Amino acid sequence: MIIIMKPGASKEAVAKVKNLIEARGLTAHLSQGAQVTIVGVVGDKTKLAGSNIEMSEGVDKVMAVTESYKLVNKKFHPEDSVIPVGNTHIGPGHLTVMAGPCAVESREQLMETAFAVKKAGASFLRGGAYKPRTSPYSFQGLEEEGLRYMKEAREATGLNVICEVTSEHAIETAVKYVDMLQIGARNMQNFELLKEAGKSGLPVLLKRGLCATIDEWLNAAEYIISEGNPNIVLCERGIRTYETSTRNTLDISAVPVIRQKSHLPIIVDPSHATGVRAYVEPLAKAAVAVGADGLMIEVHPCPERALSDGPQSLTFDAFETLMQDLAPYAKLAGRTM
């Protein structure tokens, strides 16, 4: 349920409505726009029976919210959210680019990549210290050693750093080193992990699951925000379909759908979506054109020797060219880089 206050409703009127909701054992969330305040109600709405809340001073109308996700719902929060991360933000008016290797392999590899993507214009360094792989025999990451390298790269370049976490222990360790946590596709519905990420105090990038619907994805985000963490960014990275020409099928339509359903920013990962570096550039351009708030691009100093996802990783030169080519698309979309 959402309660829409009349334009210019006083703070006292809003407070009375909020107090009435909380007195009935429900939770009230305020979304204050330039003219109108919206009060979101979370909990068993039958507890408001007989309250005549629609008759309260300053109330314009009361509307039901049929979706199971509430706090990430645009009905609760009509204005698009801007998510602060480190020394930057993700959201309207800005195109955020996260770039780096799929896996942190060594200090030298990460530092070389960090300086290269910084020079090209990225504002985030991405890198995997914990790698959930399909095969247990594949490279699993350097764990805390890799996180230490990421922190060192941040201090050397000024880039914000983001790393995937796969367990409560990984979260407890990562918060000491990174600016943003990533929940990967395989863990999108690991609800205990989502709750811990919500308690971490750090912004969270939530990737779409391999076979997840958009509503399932938004409900996963609801787990994080319900723990008191509103700083969530969604990432479309392709879904599994019957098509085998690419690793996954990039659902480019997810961007406008999310922008209609939720106030959370959404970025696109064309590297994991395709698994083929030749497709990264055109899909990155498409993502910007359709309204994405950012991109996540895999970059490696020597892709043919990468321990993880080499075929989809760009070289330094290719990434720099991509960033230059994206500039006019960002400008047309009304975004700065």
List its salient traits:
Alpha-Beta Plaits, 8-stranded parallel beta barrel, 4-stranded antiparallel beta sheet, about 325 residues, alpha/beta, elongated, 14 strands, TIM Barrel
Summarize the structure.
Helices cover 33% and strands 18% of the residues. An 8-stranded parallel β-barrel has the order 7-8-9-10-11-12-13-14, surrounded by 6 helices. It has a 4-stranded antiparallel beta sheet with strand order 2-3-1-4, covered by helices on one side.
Total domains, how many? 2
CATH architecture label name of the largest domain: Alpha-Beta Barrel
Shape: elongated
The assigned structural class equals: alpha/beta
Strand order of the largest sheet: 7-8-9-10-11-12-13-14
- Beta-strand proportion: 15-25%
The largest sheet, given as strand count, sense and whether it forms a barrel, is: 8 strands, parallel, barrel
Mean pLDDT: 94
Q: What is the share of helical residues?
A: 25-40%
Question: Considering the protein shown, what is the CATH homologous superfamily of the largest domain?
Answer: Aldolase class I
Q: What string, H for helix and E for strand, traces the elements in order?
A: EHEEEEEEHEHEHEHEHEHEHHEH
